[in-house]
Design brief:
The protein is an alpha/beta fold. It has 7 helices and 14 strands. It has a 6-stranded mixed sheet, sandwiched between helices. The relative contact order is 0.15. Mean pLDDT is 88; it is low at 118-123.
Length: 274
């Protein structure tokens, strides 16, 4: 399996002068996701939890709705310059009777680590219909619980602590109990890994849960949360305008600028209790 971090020599400049040292960088490698032998997408990701990532990706794209929709998942042969398997090609076989992905899911064979939506044929293709609408979820979350989530997320970001270069996504109960945290160079990959973990542990739909993400809340992260039935999405930074519109459309609670003891609620304020 690929390395999560890579050590690289650097020259550091500071008021104390110049010095040479070894720095730890977050690894970034391509992962090609295939379905039934056909290439569906390539994403730049931090190696690790790749099977979770692929399952979460297919769930969030509406290709599958439960673990039984996948019959096998295996890494394909492929070697790097050192002759070792790169583990950068993952093929998932759909179970009999599960229809293949729509053409609109195809991403022109490439997505960047920062924006999973880039390259889709049309914006309408990402307004997917969820099988687990969060609109009727009556979950309530207290403000004093929400304000603990950023620190709870950070304490479990082991790779971020050594590199400073990763996004994170964490799944929490409405009482603030952390269930899983995943890191990746791409914020959408971190969320897919969380959703894949939930799918593989028979927790979909994720009613009554809170998804906490580092950084901003994008349109696609709202979409992914909605596809998994998550009623509350919280972010350290701001949401985009499309993210807020989609959250309202899906009946989700969207929280931004969750820092210290304050937060902003952009939709679904009825779930937040002071």
């Amino acid at each position: 399996m690929g390395r999560v971090t890579v050590r690289r020599p650097v020259i550091s400049f500071s008021p104390r002068g110049e010095r040479r040292k070894i720095d730890a960088l977050a690894a970034e490698e391509p992962l090609e996701v295939r379905v039934n032998g056909r290439a569906l997408a390539v994403t730049m990701r931090t190696p690790g939890q790749d099977v979770e990532l692929a399952h979460g990706f297919l769930l969030s794209e509406g290709v599958i709705t439960n673990l039984e929709d996948i019959s096998t998942a295996r890494f394909c042969e492929g070697t790097g310059p050192d002759g070792e398997n790169t583990y950068n090609v993952l093929d998932l076989a759909l179970a009999p009777g599960v229809p293949p992905p729509d053409v609109g899911v195809e991403r022109n064979f490439y997505t960047t680590s920062s924006c999973g939506v880039c390259g889709k044929a049309a914006l309408d293709a990402v307004r997917l219909k969820t099988s687990f609408s969060p609109a009727g979820d009556t979950t309530k979350v207290r403000v004093d619980v929400l304000t603990t989530l950023p620190d709870a997320l950070r304490t479990q970001q082991k790779v971020f602590a050594s590199t400073g270069g990763l996004h994170a996504a964490g799944l929490f109960t409405a009482d603030g109990e952390p269930l899983v945290v995943r890191e990746d160079v791409g914020r959408h990959n971190a969320v897919d890994k969380v959703l894949g973990w939930a799918l593989m542990n028979d927790r979909i739909p994720l009613r009554g849960h809170v998804l906490m993400v580092s950084g901003r809340a994008s349109f696609e992260l709202v979409q992914k949360a909605a596809m998994a039935g998550i009623p509350v999405l919280s972010a350290v930074s701001a949401p985009s305008s499309l993210a807020a519109e989609l959250a309202e459309e899906q009946g989700m609670t969207l929280i931004g600028f969750l820092r210290g003891d304050s937060l902003n609620v952009y939709s679904g304020a009825e779930r937040v209790q002071s």
